[in-house]
Write a structure and sequence with these properties.
Layout (H helix, E strand, L loop, with lengths): L2 H11 L3 E5 L5 E4 L1 H7 L5 H4 L11 H12 L9 E7 L2 E12 L2 E10 L1 H36 L6 H33 L7 E3 L1 H11 L1 H6 L3 E6 L6 E3 L1 H17 L6 E9 L2 E8 L21 H6 L6 H11 L3 E7 L3 E9 L6
Parallel strand pairs: 7-9
Antiparallel strand pairs: 1-2, 1-5, 3-4, 4-5, 6-8, 9-10, 10-12, 11-12
The structure holds adenosine-5'-diphosphate and magnesium ion.
Length: about 350
Amino acid sequence: MHEGSLLGAIAREMPTGVVVLDSDGRILYANPSFLKSFFENGDVEEVVGRDLGTLISDAALLSAVDGFLKGNGGDRPSAGEIEVNEKNRCFKIRMVPAEDGDCFALMLFLQDITEEKMVEAIKKDFVANVSHELRTPLASIKGYSETLLDGGMDDKDTLRDFLKVIDKHATRMSRLIEDLLVLSRLESNQMPMVSEPIDISEVVRSITDGFRKQARDRGIELSMRIEDDVAGVLADRVRIEQVMVNLLDNAIKYTPSGGKVDVIVTADDGCVRVDVKDTGIGIPAPDIPRIFERFYRVDKARSRDLGGTGLGLAIVKHIIQGLNGKVWVESSLSEGSTFSFTLKSAAERV
Ligand SMILES: Nc1ncnc2c1ncn2[C@@H]1O[C@H](COP(=O)(O)OP(=O)(O)O)[C@@H](O)[C@H]1O
Ligand SMILES: [Mg+2]
């Protein structure tokens, strides 16, 4: 293969956008990746001869490009890099001049770093959230213990009350750390999901039974309906138990006394479907799309007050998706919510 055609093929196939400008800033060449991002997949012929500024409007980039074109000889930078937001995406652009005698060209390499930026932002957000969530109970623990040490403990009633508050906040912190560890293990694949045939009806039954006392204490009627001959699923028993605990805990927590929680297991088109249905406070429609995000809560104060960490549903989603299942919620404000998930029946798998 000729070197020229080889280089042409590389430029055509590479995921990085490439555009080459002449000394007047007009386009000499653009590869398909560049055209895809900035010229709606149009033809290279239509773009050749046009000014870069007709395709990209970012002022910082155009002025950097200008610097390369205007500079000559010694004062021309040897290369440069710039980050540009354009068309709702973020690009890292590397500019490299190429000189051959009197001929001058400026090559631009555009790498789409939108996803990287997003992951970075999510990580930063997560760290900020974790710090905040830990700082709040810690500040309370410190405040109350200082008051006790400053003489508050001489009074027996104050002592007991304050210790109760301290205990509540310490419990919250340890629950948060527990949930964080679960999430991090799930994400790092340190604890790979086991895929073994399990009797899902039995798992659902045993976890639901474990919530009977809690439901009774809160004046909630807890019922269970399991269809006959629901097939088993291939799943991780411990993880499914965790999913059920998180969903039932929420259903009971967010349902006022006098309400109902129903757990329903049915066979559904080669899948087993589990619904956890409550007649509770419901979720406002604008919050529904974000409800499975880490730390997302409709009412932070209420969730904290009820001992929540804001991580329960994120863990649920992680587990069900890790088992190739689906999880979703339907909810109406003040009427109730139904959290559902499906998993493929063991019989359906080869
Ligand atoms: N059954 C439910 N009814 C109403 N709101 C719910 C229900 N389940 C979850 N939510 C909402 O979703 C949020 C996130 O749930 P979750 O991740 O389990 O966190 P937590 O329960 O610790 O607050 C809750 O704070 C609450 O606002
Ligand atoms: Mg929860």
